[in-house]
Amino acid sequence: MLKHELRLPNQCTPTPDLLTCGLPAPQELKQAQAAGYKTVINLCQPQETPRDEPATVQALGMHYFNIPVAGPGDLTEAKARQLGEVVNNCDHHPVLIHCMSGNRVGALLALKAFFVDGKTPREALDAGRAAGLKALEPEVWRLLSQHAAKA
Fold first, then answer.
1. Residue 124: CATH number of its domain
2. 73-111 burial string, b = 16+ CB within 10 Å, else e?
3. Cross-strand partners of 12
4. C-beta of residue 100 within 8 angstroms of C-beta of residue 122
């Protein structure tokens, strides 16, 4: 169990060891480390990411991964599988995943649920919603439906 309650922008806790949110401030990253989080996954583009975030996370002794998602065009099976490699590795847990608002996090986690975890399109969409999926939901549903029809 994690030690502290965190209050991050647009925070969601889709599973007990996975926290999704919008962009955390440096102090919030320190609080996440103190709460027991081992890994930060950033889905922001380089120009959106605070310059010191990778160094801050690594100085705190946490793993840092950047899987840039600019928008709908970056919602791909390859990126979902890349996210799955990190999230499905127990050594990285608990994990904090962020973008600017949490919407891209929910979108990519929905695709991970479908492509990596074998969920149905409806189950994958529900997983994405639980993780912060909002504005990208129509595009995620289109992608899930399209890929399910091909299977």
1. 3.90.190.10
2. ebbeeebbebbbebbeeeebbbbbbbbbbbbbbbbbbbb
3. 20
4. no
Average pLDDT over residues 79-99: 97
3-state secondary structure of 149: helix
Q: Which domain holds residue 49?
A: 12-150
- Picking from 112, 113, 97, the residue whose alpha carbon sits closest to that of residue 41 is 97
User: Is residue 6 assigned to a domain?
Assistant: no
The pLDDT of 95-113, averaged and rounded, is 97
- Number of domains within the chain: 1
pTM: predicted TM-score of the whole model, two decimal places: 0.95
- CA neighbours within 13 Å on the CB side: how many for 78? 5
Structural domain contains residue 73: yes
Angle, helices 121-130 vs 103-115, to 10°: value is 150
- Examine residue 7 and state whether it is found in any structural domain, yes or no: no
